[in-house]
Design brief:
The protein folds into two domains: about 5-60, Orthogonal Bundle (DNA polymerase, domain 1); about 65-345, Alpha-Beta Barrel (TIM Barrel), CATH 3.20.20.70. Helix 1 (about 10-20) packs across helix 2, helix 4 (about 130-145) packs parallel to helix 5 and helix 10 packs across helix 11 (about 300-315). Mean pLDDT is about 90; it is low at about 335-345. Strand 9 (about 150-155), helix 5 and strand 10 (about 190) form a beta-alpha-beta unit. The protein has about 350 residues and is α/β, with parallel strands linked by helices. It starts with a strand and ends with a helix. The strands form three sheets. The protein has a ten-stranded mixed sheet. The protein has a two-stranded parallel ribbon with strand order 1-2. Strands 7-8 form a two-stranded antiparallel ribbon. The protein is elongated. The protein has twelve helices and 14 strands.
């Protein structure tokens, strides 16, 4: 049998694999606790298991970690980690402090298929999906490096999480499992650029995670320009899919809206966004565009950002401003990986 990375397996899958080896299912709990609670770096370190079993596990499963290729720290406290994967590809993880909150932004793909016009992730194209072990590995590394538990984990890094849902779902289950990382569902957020076909999968998930929907434009004409995924899943189809998710009992959706000066920051845009938010009973996160080298989009002024926010609030839409952080360390998704690959000739 081909080796399996043990961190690619949910608890139930690991139990099934152990049964095939003639082992008791409860051993999977001991392995999970060793991997995710005691942060063992090899099977031999999981001393709750007998030596013979540890040797059998080492022969059956691989146990790969992630290699840090670069680390950047910003003056605002943001830290970006660049991980080198086993095949030489690179992904990014960002650690974002904000008051008492400490948020870890996880990547789900190497590159991105959907190439939003203002985002760096898709500029070098799509390479591949991340495996569950590579997604969870980011979270495990950060938690160990920090020596403390982050308050929130968001799947908002490189890639479209719902396009890699089979692996993202496994990562969510591993992180949420009491025997695993034991991260509460309310502290996990999965973002999507509008992959409407995958909303039923979110509805079927038995874990009440948070969902964040990137809108960025309130007309198909502008959204087609900014977000090519809109040609496959037009705005109304995305909103209807999100509406079905909310009606199925899903948690409140947050609408992400990146303000681009002179493009989507007019009060008519705010009216359209308010209408979508009310329809979904959603709150809105406003983000001022963070400049990406080589792109001509402009950041709105603080006055325009405040005006847009006030207009939404006057229409009874809960609105927060998410401050762009880490601009001095290329913290926008995909920027550091792109620069690293350019330097290395990848």
């Amino acid at each position: 049998m081909s080796p399996i990375d043990v961190r690619d397996l949910t608890l139930r899958e690991l139990q099934d694999e152990l049964e095939k080896l003639g082992e008791r299912r409860y051993r999977a709990v001991q392995i999970f606790e060793g991997l995710y609670k005691k942060r063992a770096a090899a099977f031999e370190a999981i001393t709750t298991l007998g030596k013979a079993l540890r040797e059998r596990l080492a022969a059956r499963f691989t146990f790969a970690g992630l290699e840090v290729a670069d680390t950047r720290s910003s003056g605002d406290g943001t830290t970006k980690l660049l991980f080198r994967l086993g095949d030489g590809e690179h992904v990014e993880t960002v650690i974002i402090p904000a008051g008492r909150r400490l948020t870890v932004c996880l990547s789900t793909q190497v590159g991105c298929k959907f190439a939003c016009a203002f985002c760096a992730s898709g500029r070098r194209g799509f390479r591949r999906d991340l495996r569950p072990s590579e997604i969870v590995g980011q979270a495990v590394h950060v938690r160990s490096a920090l020596g403390r538990e982050p308050t929130n984990y968001v799947f908002m890094g490189m890639g479209e999480p719902l396009d890699n849902w089979a692996h993202v779902e496994k990562a969510v289950r591993i992180m949420n499992a009491p025997e695993g990382m034991a991260v509460a569902a309310r502290r996990i957020t999965v973002s999507t650029a509008g992959f409407a076909d995958a909303f039923p999968r979110l509805s079927a998930l038995d874990i009440q995670i948070n969902v964040s929907l990137s809108i960025h434009a309130v007309t198909d004409r502008l959204r087609d320009r900014l977000m090519p995924i809109n040609r496959r899943f037009p705005l109304d189809a995305v909103v209807r899919a999100a509406e079905g998710y909310v009606r199925s009992g899903g948690r409140m959706i947050t609408l992400e809206y990146c303000l681009l000066a002179g493009l989507n920051d007019a009060l008519d845009d705010a009216d359209g966004l308010a209408a979508i938010a009310r329809r979904l009973r959603a709150k809105v996160n406003l983000i001022a565009y963070s400049p990406v080298e080589g792109l001509e989009f402009k950041t709105p002024t603080d006055a325009d950002l405040s005006r847009f926010k006030r207009w939404l609030e006057e229409r009874r839409v809960g609105t927060t401003v998410r401050l762009s952080k880490g601009s001095d360390i290329a913290a926008a998704c995909g920027q550091l990986a792109g620069r690293f690959e350019e330097r290395s000739g990848a």
